[in-house]
Specification:
- This protein is of the alpha/beta class.
- 51% of the residues lie in helices and 7% in strands.
- It has 23 helices and eight strands.
- The chain has helices at residues 5-18, 26-42, 47-61, 64-67, 72-87, 115-128, 145-156, 172-186, 203-216, 232-243, 263-270, 291-298, 304-314, 317-328, 334-346, 350-354, 364-369, 373-383, 387-391, 398-408, 412-433, 469-480, 515-525; strands at 103-108, 133-137, 159-161, 190-194, 220-226, 248-252, 274-278, 286-288.
- An eight-stranded mixed sheet has the order 3-2-4-1-5-6-7-8, with helices on both faces.
- Strand 7 (274-278) and strand 8 (286-288) form a beta hairpin.
- Helix 3 (47-61) runs antiparallel to helix 5.
- The longest helix is centred in the last third of the chain and has 22 residues, at 412-433.
- The radius of gyration is 37 Å and the shape is flat.
- The N and C termini lie far apart (85 Å).
């Protein structure tokens, strides 16, 4: 996650130095805690939170759980992870819905924090879960705020209540109260109220937000805060808590490149949980906040659970089952490959997904250089093929590939690379479908792993091994005729050169060649 990238890099370097030590001394622990303190302070984490965090880490790191551990370095990483989860809120906190609908959710925060866009993201997320939300435009102060909310609602596919044009016209308290009545009449089970913000905390802003809260009695008040705000995050959060109070925090702009550590302080200093996180500009770039998963991302331990959830949401189980059957029966086509690519795109940014893998910090440069448009080019190439070509890639000769390259705006080389990748992927997945282990290019075979089917037994090459050309020809001729070749003279008690065997030549004994052998020899010599 870009916002915590600097903090993640610093902590990763600190733990890397620990892993070279078999046993940790008090000096090692103090040095590690000192580096962690510097990393947190540089990331704009509040001083009060840093002091409390590092003192707990040091106390536990010097305790028995580390000194008696088989791998002290891993134990310290686990302690830091546990304490990081604690300052992020401990356990995930879900939305609490009203027993009698509608559930009223009020958004509060400074101007520019992303409240209006977040209202659309939250509404779309709730709609996917079977709810029927309505957005209420109670921000009548900011220019074009009402228009923006209407656009966002249309994009999210949800209803909006906007009776006033805004731009300084209208009573926000009346709009909010009427919006709740509208939801009851139209049977919307969730009301999301978008309120006005200011460039800084002021008395008028707090009074309006407090009046809105009293008029609507919301079930949830979400404080929306920009993760890149810096040290002002703590002061702003405390001011809102005293003036309006809130039940949860939403972090926005977590995809930014600012240090963002101040956002880590909010949950700890306000005792209010972080409930959601906005990770991009799209309406789908929104997810519930899991303290343990976020701690794993910061420490470069990965977030496999979120990755699995995104995959489950994007991939159709029935379609996946059909594709698995096609792999097993060797009927996987480029059309199926295209469908898999499109489902992968539905999961969101490939870079973001790869950043959730454990150890992704070591691939930072590769991830930055990854071109998301590669999937678009792949789709264009496949869509430029005819139906028959997608079903039977072997038909793709030189002229067809040239036509496909021109039609997709790519080069013949790119078309060739795609076909090669498709064939490799199909071959690997067929091996997996049969219970084998694919042989991945660039990796040595895994000891003890099968490779999809029994290996073919190498047949022992039959034929004479004699160094004498005449003898070898004679023995091979005997084998071809289905007869057992005569034993060499050396095994029959004669000399090494076939002399003195004690048997008459030409009688089929071990002492000399048979008539068939002599005939074969004459034939070989061309006589």
């Amino acid at each position: 996650m870009a916002t915590f990238g600097t903090l993640s890099d610093r902590l990763a370097k600190t733990f890397k130095n620990l892993r070279t030590k078999g046993k940790l001394s008090a000096a090692d622990v103090d040095g590690t805690v000192r580096e962690i303190r510097r990393a947190l302070l540089e990331a704009d984490v509040a001083l009060e939170v840093v002091k409390d965090f590092t003192s707990k880490v040091r106390e536990r790191a010097l305790g028995d759980e580390v000194s008696k551990a088989l791998n002290p370095a891993q134990q310290v990483v686990q302690i830091v992870n546990d304490e990081l989860v604690t300052i992020l809120g401990g356990q995930q906190r879900r939305l609490e819905f009203a027993k009698k609908p509608p559930t009223i959710i009020m958004l509060a925060g400074l101007q520019g924090a992303g409240k209006t866009t977040l209202a659309g993201k939250l509404a779309k997320w709730l709609a996917k879960d079977g709810h029927t939300p309505v957005l209420v435009a109670a921000d009548l102060q900011r220019p074009n705020a009402v228009t923006q909310l209407e656009v966002v609602a249309k994009q999210a596919g949800v209803a909006v209540y906007a009776p006033q044009p805004g731009n300084g016209v209208g009573d926000p308290v009346k709009v909010a109260r009427d919006g709740v009545k509208f939801a009851q009449q139209k049977q919307h089970d969730v009301v999301i109220i978008d309120t006005a913000g200011r460039l800084g905390v002021d008395a008028d802003m707090m009074k309006q937000a407090a009046d809105l809260r009293r008029a609507t009695d919301p079930d949830e008040v979400l404080f929306v805060i920009d993760a890149m705000i810096g040290q002002d995050a703590v002061a702003t959060a405390k001011a809102f808590q005293e003036g309006v109070d809130f039940t949860g925090v939403v972090l926005t702009k977590l995809d930014g490149d600012a240090r963002g550590g101040a956002a880590l302080s909010v949950a700890s200093l306000t005792s209010r949980p972080i409930m959601f996180a906005s990770t991009g500009e799209g309406l789908d770039d929104f997810e519930p906040f899991h303290p343990d998963r976020m701690a794993g991302r910061i420490l470069d331990l990965g977030d496999i659970l979120t990755l699995i959830e995104q995959a489950q949401g994007a991939f159709d189980e029935d379609e996946a089952r059909k594709v698995a059957e096609k792999f097993a029966t060797d009927t996987f086509t480029l059309d199926d490959f295209l469908g898999q690519m499109q489902q992968l795109r539905n999961m969101g940014s490939i870079k973001k997904m790869m950043s959730m893998l454990p150890g992704a910090g070591a691939m930072k440069q590769q991830l930055e250089n990854f071109d998301e448009r590669e999937i678009v080019r792949t789709e264009a190439i496949i869509q430029s093929m005819t139906k028959v070509e997608r079903t039977t890639p072997k038909l793709l000769n030189g002229s067809r590939r040239l036509r496909i390259a021109k039609g997709s705006g790519t080069t013949v080389t790119e078309v060739n690379q795609l076909v090669t990748r498709f064939e490799q992927a199909a071959k690997m997945m067929k091996t997996v479908a049969k219970g084998g282990m694919p042989n991945i290019p660039g990796m040595a075979p895994i000891p003890g792993a099968g490779y999809g089917g029994k290996p073919k037994a190498q047949q022992k090459k039959k034929g004479s091994k004699s160094g004498n050309p005449a003898k070898r020809a004679a023995e091979n001729a005997a084998l071809a005729a289905g007869e057992k070749p005569a034993l060499e003279a050396s095994t029959a008690g004669g000399s090494g050169f076939g002399l003195g065997g004690g048997a008459q030549a030409g009688k089929g004994k071990a002492g000399g060649p048979t008539e068939e052998e002599m005939a074969a020899l004459q034939k070989m010599l061309g006589r």
